[in-house]
Amino acid sequence: MSTEAPRAGEQVIRARGLSKRFGALTAVDHLDLDVRRAEVFGFLGPNGCGKSTTIRMLCGLLRPSEGEIEVLGCHIPQDAEALKRRIGYMTQKFSLYEDLTVGENLEFLATVHGLAPRAAKARIDELLERYWLADRRKQMAGTLSGGQKQRLALAGAVLHKPALLLLDEPTSAVDPQSRREFWDSLFELAEAGTTLLVSTHYMDEAERCTRLGILDAGRLVADGSPQELMAGLPGRPLLVDCAQPRQAQRALEGLPEVLAQAQIGAHLRVLSGAADGRQRVAAHLQRAGIVATVEDTEANLEDVFVSVTRRPATAPETAP
Hints:
Blueprint: E1 11-22, E2 25-36, E3 40-44, H1 51-59, E4 66-71, E5 74-76, H2 80-84, E6 87-90, H3 102-112, H4 117-130, H5 146-158, E7 164-168, H6 176-191, E8 195-200, H7 203-206, E9 211-216, E10 219-224, H8 226-231, E11 236-242, H9 245-252, E12 258-264, E13 267-272, H10 277-287, E14 292-296, H11 301-309
Parallel strand pairs: 3-8, 3-9, 6-7, 7-8
Antiparallel strand pairs: 1-2, 1-4, 4-5, 9-10, 11-13, 11-14, 12-13
Protein name: ABC transporter ATP-binding protein
Organism: Zestomonas insulae
Keywords: ATP-binding, Nucleotide-binding
């Protein structure tokens, strides 16, 4: 087991054939994963796709049914206890003590991590300033706003300066401004050399990641930078401009060349799986008596997500 800090470009997480089954239900299905130092690696996927289960296995909190895991040189689950001292873990649910003050929560965590009193005080003072909580030090944690609780949880997760930070949908319960501030804090950590693995179902957050893994039904169905994934989109995104986009949407429902569609303002966005999709969509709308202009448009991550996670309605259920 290695105790040295990972160097630039070095693998921090390596998983091969990672699987987790709960009885007849397969939550994670033979997943291969590589994450390098100082990456902001995003797990994108719908609820129930296996994101949380994967993160818990990587942390050593959940024993895999099958496969190999190496995190920061530690082999999991054998070295799970040693790994806990070198990682930070933050969930979407506030997990600190609501009946303690902000300062007391961080002091308790410092004791758990074995920080010396003088070093603990300096580190807590630093984090309270960095995460705009200095004036809340004596406030009960349970009375904080959602954004303030999130910042306190992040301060607690990085108190011991972990080399790897794993965050499981950390912004699901906060407002857009707090989400932006939170992501600014994450990039500060990455710039300082911390590796981050963040699960999310927000497309705008996924676009911020340096690399993305898209999970579906427990499988890794896409892996790459947001730019690479959009450039490699197998379908063709189209923009339909017409006076009645809802009518156009109904007319296109069920066509085999239409993978997905959504109304965006006064327009209809269509993802076509055919090379000549623009011509087919335009012809079908014309036959339906709908006057419309159909143009190619730039791909976005939602197009990628829809394309790689599209499967038959009879697909097996996944784990929560």
